[in-house]
Amino acid sequence: THFGVARAHEMAHAEVVWYRRSSENRCKYKAVLHSDGLGRWEPIKEDDILTASPPSDLVVDVLLRYSYLSHADEPLVPAIAKFFHANLLTPLTLWPEQCTRNEAMLKISSDPERIWRTNPQNLVYVVPRGQGGGAGNAGKYGSRACAQRMRAGEPFIAVNSRDLVEVVLRRLGYVDDVLNTDVEEAIDIFWSMGTNKSNLNQIGLEVSPFLDADCKGLLLRLALGSPRVSGAWQTAPKCSSLR
Question: Domain of life, per the record (predicted)?
Answer without folding.
Answer: Eukaryota
